[in-house]
User: Fold these one by one.
Assistant:
Number 1:
Amino acid sequence: MTTANLTRAETAARSAAVTVRAYRVDLDLSGATDHTGDTFATTTTVEFDATMDRTWLDFLGASVESVTVNGQDVPVDYDGARLTIPDLAAANTVVVRATGHYSRSGEGLHRFLDPADGATYLYTQYEPADARRVFACFEQPDMKAPFTFVVTAPAGWEVVSNRPIATIEDEGARQRVEFSPTLPISTYITAIAAGPYHRVESSWTRDELTVPLGVLCRASLAGHLDADTILEVTKQGLDFFAGHFAYPYPWGKYDQIFVPEYNLGAMENPGLVTFTEAYVFRGAATAAQYEGRANTILHEMAHMWFGDLVTMVWWDDLWLKESFADYMGALASAEATEWTDAWVAFANRRKAWAYSQDQLPTTHPIVADIGDLEAAKLNFDGITYAKGASVLKQLVAYVGRDEFFTGVRRYFRTHAFGNTTLADLLTELSADSGRDLAGWARAWLQTTGMSTLMLDDGTIVQTDPRPHRLAVGLYDFDAAGDLVRRDRVELDLVAERTPVALEPAPLRLLNDGDLTYAKVRLDTDSLATVEKSLDRVTDPLARGLIWSALWNAARDGELEVERYLRMARDFAPAESNTALLAAVLANASFAIGHYLPAADRERWRGEWLESCWATLHSAAPGSGDQLAWARATATAATVDGRRAADIRAILLGDAPAPDGLALDPDLRWQLWTALAATGAATEAELDAELTGDSTASGRTAHRRALAARPEPEVKAAAWAAALGDTTLTNDHLDAVIDGFRAGQRRDLVSRYDDEYFAVLREVWEQRSIEIARRIVLGLFPAAGSLDQVDAWLDTHADAPGALRRLVIEQRDHLARDLRVRAGGR
């Protein structure tokens, strides 16, 4: 383990001996537009009390020029990750002058050159521990302090941070911007952004509190920024959380900035929330995309309280912020915005992520055992987010909504600007609930896996028993032939078998309303009903739960894959909820490529492409459904070339597109990539498409399409670039890897299996964890040999735990593919 990989034990010892009082961070970014250089000057002044005579500060940078301790210069003792600070007194002021690197991986201070107009943009991303790439600090969440940021940047740039600007000094070609001090926060949620960003302003007022609002994006994207819609959701969310949390928004302003080449969906920096600019839609977008963006806005807003105001002590309790934010994002979407069906997407998509993660051999409790930062980085997963949120929804059903929010309010008041663990939360939630939350926590937060629920002759059977509060919905046909709920039975489950009196019904749906976290199996009669009449179920949440049950049964080998695919083919064209439609289309495509035996795969590829093509042309012109089917057609055409001539004619203008379909740049690139992957597009044609879309997105898509071509020398070049070209940005690396894998051409890529396993350790040791993770996952031989994976695991028992976890998870996915293809469980 390198000294960059901080452990829980040593950080706990450091925080026990050191109390931080304040930081002042001075960054000189005035040379950022000169891309021949890749460094910037960074000076940190940190004030702290200590009960030891030495400690260390964390810094990952180019060099440390000087260290001053209480006014005295001391020798620089720096190993590339830790900077030793000697000669400490009870109260200390330490000044570190250093040089940092601009990032191209989205970690630390990322620098982006916009090809559309030549403008340079900067932004920071730190979670879990990359503030140390920008300034020297105590890089752990429990050492909170106020921060004052001072940024020197080119004149005319927008410069933003967590707090409002206090002063600006005009220095001619430069400006020196000092921000107001923050309230006490952790290092990982501090933030800076600078560049010629486009800005839209508004404000939100409640009672005596007025919060300035800002929405920012690159200047070249300004024409696509629907700031009014974003601001509307923002104000709705602030109203919702102010009413439910009874703790005023504490961070002063609320800026939201959409940034390029972002590794996450978003990050909850107080006062300056960062988002991927994929949420700035360059063309047509479905209702599900707008709903997903609203959910993310509200998720990050919930963090202003869960995570920013009250922060976990260490990454073991990451769920204390992420599970709550995931739950609150869906709740606020459903109750405060136009997206009243937000729980549908949650039940079908977010929980699918959790169910998949929770069945891996590397699954972990929601309250995880996180020994070091590498483990923390990989724990931003379906357990911490979606399972945790699902369990919180069950908790609300278990203790009552009023009791839950009463405990939450007390939690904020008691621990504001502090750090907490599971015990602190349970203390506040237990006070009014009258429930045994210690037992509940053991069953739900401190164990792994999930129950599977099924009906068996008047008895609900659950595997891996847990306490559940749930409902059973009884659905029958009405006069119009629709399947509607005529009765609902709520009950508590504890034992493995629970008798329940249910009237006969064509469809009996366990976990109706999606109150608990469990996989559900449809009984024989209900499955028969669904197989004939799924499109007649009028309630979208019920349909979402049914689609989820079918998918889980198919991927567990308990429902024939072709049976699932027939239902997807027959009922997806009638699905009116675009979030459900997108999930079903993605699952069907995945099932064909991963779960069907080779003998059936080619037939279903053709049938699925034809189904997508036909529905694309029959969908309502200009609708979100039409757009979803166009994207599904592009995905299907990537592995089956029989519609290549038709697609090509549309792209070249030789044939009309389906009526109402907007061929925006993103959709055009999807279709060109499909042609490239099947050998139906030349390099010259892809270059010609780039001339019409030489934006950042266009250049990334062009790189992906070039690497998708089914030629041995193309795959060889893509492989070499992914492993060896360290100038690739994070987005460009993804594009090269996606292109390399496009078309599922095992005949072209299997030759690289041996080299993949030969270089894994080297990749992990030499690249940042974010880039290494992308390479390990992206280039894994997804249709390779289990024996080869096992051989690597056997001979690399000493490999870093985080690397082994990634390989073990990919092995499990491969094993599931092979098992389901063989018709087994």
Number 2:
Amino acid sequence: MSTVQGKIVNKFNDPIEGVAISYLDKGTTTDKDGNYSFQIPIRKTVKVTFSHVSYKTILKKFTTRGARTINFSPTLTIKTEELEEVIVKNRKKEAQGITKIDTKKVETVVGPNAGVEAVLMTLPGVSNNNELSTQYNVRGGNFDENLVYVNGIEVYRPFLIRSGQQEGLSFINSHMIQNIDFSAGGFQAKYGDKLSSVLDITYRKPTESSTQVDLSFLGASVTTEGLIFNDKLSAILGVRYRDNSLFVNDKQTEVNFRPSFTDIQTFLSYELSSKVSLNFLGNFSLNNYDYKPLSRRTRFGTIANPLELIVFYQGQEVDRFQTFFGAFSMDYKVNENLELTGIVSSFNTQEEEYFDIAAQYNLGQVNTNLGSENFGEVEFAQGIGSQLNHARNDLDALIVNAQVRATLKDGNNEWRAGAKYQRENIKDRIREWEIIDSVGFSVRPPHHNIGNNQPYTPFTGPIEPFQNVRAQNTVDIDRFSGFLQFSRKTTWGDHDIWFNAGVRGQYWNVNPVGGASKSHMIFSPRAQFAIKPDWNSDMLFRLSGGYYSQPPFYRELRGFDGQISADVKAQKSIHAVLGNDYSFTMWNRPFKLTTELYYKDLSDVNAYSIDNVRIRYRADNVTDAYAYGLDVRLNGEFVPGSDSWISFGYLKTEENIDNRGYIARPTDQRIKLGILFQDYVPNLPDLKAYLNLVYNTGVPGGAPAYADVYEFQNRLGDYRRADVGVSYIFIDNNKTTSNKFLNNFEELSAGLELFNIFDIRNSITNTWVRDVYSKQQFAIPNFMTGRVLNFKLRMKF
């Protein structure tokens, strides 16, 4: 038998006497101090009901695989207060098409970049083929089409990062999170002007003092929080450090690699009165990326004709990305129905990207004769050459804004409105070129078809780098935006109805130094409708969509040649989403099936190419596109007491550039399968296992940067990856011990993580080398990380 015990209190932390506790046709009650205790059988799921005449009844399931003591101390809510939450809150997120992610999933998810983004990439419609990057594509969109908010404030990422291994840390500190909402499309007007998705993060306001320390081979983090000044000021501070050497040293290129990714964040909230609170959100991050490649050896080709590329490098890359972010806000609760919020924020990024890397390569044929003494060795040099890549890129971006928002509630009606002014100042200097040499002769750019009849005729054509981008841009962008939306929850007969309608507008002016300024304006109406029929089956249907627009950010204004085009218009999309949520019981445990059909009709599209995580835009609006697909997710307790899910997504997205015909977009990833699974050892429930599995079909890509996409539609290989983690909980809130050392901790756990357990080599891009004999170019896959073992330790005081 196992013992369940605890103390039941109300929201004022007062004990509740006389709470009726029912289980297995038995029962007990709490004493005058709110304490209770009873026993349950092991290896059986027991439903326990806690009820009181003045408080809302709660139901809790307990399952134990061995004799142990379970501490469960719930806080009961007065019935009148909870009834209001049931009507407004519990179904509100589902009706809005918002996926609410459990913060515990973020703490336990396994992956090279564990955190919120790692959980997102197990959802249908969300994909990324680069495990070293925290960026993600949603339903055919690219990285730049996703909105990310922290406490209602939009956050940004550095501009110049071109590979996942340069990113280091996501802005979001997963140890500071209280709430996570995610929408993959059809979102409300209160959110900003992007085409694909919204990730809305809320950092918590601490209610007690604690410190959490996480240590691993990949870095460390410390999060401390508490209340000061007579509990009027709540403060939380997080410091993180990350080192990607464990992954990069496992790749096919031998390097000297010294990364340093540091991040400091804080969230402060001070209650001036019961109606007014002041808040501050601050962040500082510093990414130092020192990269010195030494050599590379990659085998590719077919069994019948295997080839090997050997590269020797000279030079290094030194990058520095430094960002500052600060936001002050004030929340004013005028009365029970009206709330006002004012925010002033500033974001500054200072970025340097310097490299000089010379590569000399030998492309050879591999001996496939089993009887040969040289079997498996390179015996014939099929191509030789060299290249030199140079960059001196500097960028300084300052983004400041001020905004005000208001929320007015009138019964089941809710009005929201907001206005925002934003000023962007970008200073960008680009000096980037590439020289390719083949057997002593400089290879000219592919668009130069100049004849060469030496030595009979002197060559008078220009000697130019194979690729060359030189630009210096200074641009100011002023933006005025606002929104108004109305929401209502009502009934239609015995059916529950939710609907929302709103509109956004934005006016912006692009003023490049030395060029003509240009102004633009867009309107974005949006609507949502949801109904929960009064059926025996627990189902909810919703329809959402609208006319979405994405005014260009600086990177979208910059073309392949590095020059700014102020004439670039907003990309537009007519978006429709039809969804269904079906909650049911299977194996006497709760499950939920979520299904969504979506369609996007895009116009004025700014076409782009992707190289790793670097996006380069055409800086025009001569493209039309579309995307449609199906997302399905089944989540529930596949194992009693542990929530897991399986996701499936189908997507098709194509674009028509300048009326040349429809071809696959760079993000056309047809099939997506994701599994996030949790389990524990039956006889040792504190030993837990976590599995994160992702399968994505290949996307178009790997072409040289100068290639015509209409002539090169080959796809990269399918992306397959499985990460597994095992952890043991020594002590936590549900486990007590007589060990004096362990009693010093509130929580203590340790575990091992095995990334890419099947050691599958996924390619993210291709390196192109020339064969001087056949005049062909060969695509050499650039593989991502292999199998890596990581140790992790978590302590909370």
Number 3:
Amino acid sequence: MKLKTAGVAFFLGGITLISAQTKSGDTISHDKLIDEVIVTGSRNKNRTVVNSPVPVDVIDIKDVSKNTGQVDLNQLLQFSAPSFNSNKQSGSDGSDAVDPATLRGLGPDQTLVLLNGKRYHQSSLVNLFGTKGRGNSGTDMNTIPIAAIKRIEVLRDGASAQYGSDAIAGVINVILNDRNKGFEGDVFYGANLFKSPGNNDVISDKSIDGNTFDFSGNYGTKIGSKGGFGNFTVEYIDKQYAFRNANPDKYDAPRKRFGDAASKNFYFFGNIEIPVADGLTFYTHPGFSYRNTKAYAWTRSADSDGNIPEIYPDGFNPIENTKINDFTFDNGLKFKVSDWDVDFFNAFGDNNFRYQIDNTLNATLGTKSKTSFDAGGHALLQNTTGFSAVKKFRVLEGLNIAFGSEFRYEKFNIYKGEEGSYAMYDVNGNVVTENTDPSLYVTNPISGEIRPGGSQGFPGYSQEVNKSRNNLAGYVDTELDVTKNWMISAAGRFENYSDFGSTLNGKFSTRYVITPQFALRGSVSTGFRAPSLVQKYYSLQFTNFIAQQLVTIQLASNDSDLAKAVGISPLKQETSLNGSAGFTFNSSKFTATVDGYYVKVKDRIVLTGYFGQDDDAIGSILAANHIDQAQFFTNAIDTETRGVDVILTYRENIGAGNLVATLAGNYNNMDITAVHTSGKLVGKEEVYLSPRERAFILSSAPRTKFNLNLNYAVKKFNANLQMVRFDKVTYLGYEGPDDFQNYDARITTDLSFGYHFTPKFNLTLGGKNIFNQYPTLQTAQVSAGNTESGGIFDPVQMGFAGRQVFARVNFKF
């Protein structure tokens, strides 16, 4: 049955609700909608969202996107899912181009992302400066265009025993469009209507900014006469800057260009299936995305040591011009062998970053300096080859057995930048080394301080890296319906990595139906996350000046001689213990789901603080290696996370229309239970992981997050109101334990109205954050430049762009 959309899909902890109508305006039965078969969390092809033993949320992306002003997948999920959080960044180097995302407050790299059920490659970026998820390298879901997605299935439960590494917090499975007929286009335009709050503490260069244009087209066609199809998507997004600066008449903010970066994105994705013989189907999922992000770094004033007044008389704002090329190419064959459904596949992915630093200079080159540098970049390639086999047996009420194997190859590269992007030069134009006479250092005649080397705003990479590894995995996944009301499931997985060894994980889950409306469910599992190649081999050396002294800072790779010299152990896997328990209630009008969870993670990988030559344990080692300060990736902490997801939905016919009301909430609390130092650094826990860094980890998600959504559809008209409450978040500044930075709870309100002029033409007008809410202004800290971002507030969950209005046109032919 063809649908004319008149609503939105919501998270229901294992149940999908979609308010939709047929062409005649008849509302489709809720019971039919929740019977959709899921492919995540269960390899039983008869398992639906309503009878899953663990919470699997299904999101109809097309319906959600029509009612919101979001064009990025991360931000769309951020304002739809209570336990999903993704922060826009500013002044965080490569992270300005990739929004770090978390599920249940765990690390960005502790959620596994699948594309049509196959492992999707990670980003080559590791989050470092001024950002959440520091030391983590996650998956960039914004490389997948929204227009190419049919739905998203979110498994909110540990699933390493089923899917392997990274699935500690859960699994997000992106299902591509498989429509085989016609063209559907979408045109979006949005802009921030800026108005300063209250005391004019926030200013913008323009009254309207952040202009966003998005065009997407999706075309489906049949291939052959045996059910083959091809579905193709192109999308183009153009976003302009949105600056939220401190008022210079009141505060001396260290950044004059704080806010959303500008970007241009282009996507092409395909989803193709072709029956090549009876019982044999070939499929392929090619995808390419290109993103060019321009983000401003911290301001260099006219008299700063990093500026040459002859080049920039008024100072300058360096621009990090980041280009991301992302490519995916999955291919496979599906066939039957003795009633086993077999899938043999190869999933390839490559993520490539290149940094060009514009509007900058190398101050040690003086007036001869270029104003643009190639700073190098990094890339990550992942290729997974495997097979899976599934069969259902007549045992009791039904036994489903699945097994399979995977072989994955990974390669990580760092590309060296041009010399001027990272080098420091002396007065004679020679590169400064440890043997350079200090009297030859280039100084600022105004301050007398030594000028810093490298491209201002982002130092180029000075070393090439080319590292690889592989792993082999095998798994068994079973489900047994003991009775019509009771099912149990068990899974086990073994993996062996070439760089750190083997791991074995298991999972048990169950579901019991008490009444036709009420059921209990729960699970317990062990999990793991392999250290990423980026964490193992990323290194960066740069210079800074402290007290008129040249300071060489080394972010030492885990396999470096320096890391070995100070006793940093080779990275090993993070391990987890997951438990969940909950219930579902489903009646004709009211649905409730409650799921509590517990996640204990041991040996989480973090980036340490800085150790200097004055350290009594390793200072002499650093001096012998000509390093003034060093930091390392290491398995340093244990955490425990407890939380509850509650989702309540009520449906009612009001007048000629239908109202769907959903209240979804998440409570999440994390504790750091232990900090593990190396043998030579025992007693240095406060440097290993400072209270400030601990505060950043613990604030990865607000303690509570609530989403109230009201959708009313009547004939050709629908209205959607969404209110999201983000709880208070607390950071620590640089001035010690009393330097609290509190971001009070905020409520954002989104409102949209849609009208179907014809079955093939729809217009939606709306606004997000219509009451122009901003994070709490950190006025006391701004004069000292103590916010992590250098602006008047840090990037927090609600965002910092203010009000946006938008129009969206959807058409078909």
